[in-house]
Amino acid sequence: MERRNPGTDFRLDWFEGIQVNTPAAERRAASLTARRSLKKEWQVAWLLNAVRCIDLTTLSGDDTPDRVARLCAKARQPVDAGQLAALGVDHLTVGAVCVYPTMVAAAKRALAGTAVPVASVATGFPAGLMPLDLRLAEIRYALDQGADEIDIVISRALVLRGEWAALYDEICDMREACGHARMKAILATGELKTLGHVAKASHVAMQAGADFIKTSTGKEPVNATLPVSLVMLRAIRDYRDRTGFAVGFKPAGGLKTARDALNWQVLMAEELGRDWLRPELFRIGASSLLGDIERQISHHVTGRYAAAHRLAAG
To answer: How many domains does the chain have?
Structure first.
């Protein structure tokens, strides 16, 4: 079990002077993914690793227990057993299933007997524009329903106003409410305006005890991007160097293709090292990504792409 990040006292001096050269961050992110070419069995190995790091997600207004049960069936067997056998893989599941608090109980029932955790969004997802006591109550409700992990959203207005101490206090309250459950702090980076804000919000969330920092809710106009992810990964590295604690990273929203899955893993490996490429420290928030990964694996095993209707829906 990965040591949890206990957080630190609020340390403004750790990040107050951070400035991000946006064009340089964009160039670095683009060059990293362009340099690394993964082909054939090496590509498949990285894609299988991506599958085990996916938080398979449904966050729709028309979610039902039946839809969640179907998603959980996919989480149990994300890739065809015959194709896994051809690749010499005995068993594979996704990293977690992510749902709304009211769907947690259904997910727990559907995943009974497996080690797949259930993650619940909370704290007024996706906007977070609710009184703090109600946001904390939603965390407690999700835990009562059986959630193993909680994906919280931060107050973007506190970032935009530079109220870092207030943001720290708020996230600390959420971390305390999460108790034993791992907490992923969603920064909603598409609404933070600058990469400097992204870097500083990342530091505050980690100081407040976040076990993961996550890019997006998936509901913003712009979700996960490689430059934003680069900035967050470097904040994670800085925090690790200062405290000795490894914080996880979760890109979410907009990752739809197998190439996306490869690109983000390359970024992780280059910036943090391959030790981060495991579910304890890396998750991909996705709903449709798995289908394209399956098609690529099918092509490697059979020599042809599977039709969409032949892939079990998630």
So the answer is: 1
Residue 94 lies in a domain: yes
pLDDT digit of tens for each residue in the chain (314 aa)?
Answer: 578 999 999 999 999 999 999 999 999 999 987 777 777 889 999 999 999 999 999 999 999 999 999 999 999 999 999 999 999 999 999 999 999 999 999 999 999 999 999 999 999 999 999 999 999 999 999 999 999 999 999 999 999 999 999 999 999 999 999 999 999 999 999 999 999 999 999 999 999 999 999 999 999 989 999 999 999 999 999 999 999 999 999 999 989 999 999 999 999 999 999 999 999 999 999 988 999 999 999 988 988 877 766 665 55
Is the distance from CB of 181 to CB of 146 less than 8 angstroms?
A: no
Burial tier of 175 (Cβ tally within 10 Å: 0-12, 13-18, 19+) = buried
State the catalytic residue, choosing from 55, 151, 211, 292: 151
Helix (H, G, I), strand (E, B) or coil at 92: coil
9 is annotated as an active-site residue: no
CATH classification of the domain holding 129: 3.20.20.70
> Which entry of 108, 184, 200, 214 is annotated as an active-site residue?
214
Edge-first strand order for the sheet with 182-186 is: 248-250, 212-214, 182-186, 149-153, 118-121, 96-99, 54-57, 284-286
Q: Which residue segment(s) compose the domain that 247 sits in? A: 12-306
Q: Assess whether 250 carries a catalytic annotation.
A: yes
* Residue 146 DSSP label: T
Asked, for residue 258, whether it belongs to a domain, the answer is yes
Question: Does a structural domain hold residue 49?
Answer: yes
Catalytic, 151? Answer: yes
Q: What distances in angstroms separate CA 56 from CA 76, 285, 290, one per listed residue?
A: 11, 7, 8
From 211, 250, 260, 292, active-site residue: 250
Amino acid of residue 101: P
User: Quick check: is 48 in a domain?
Assistant: yes
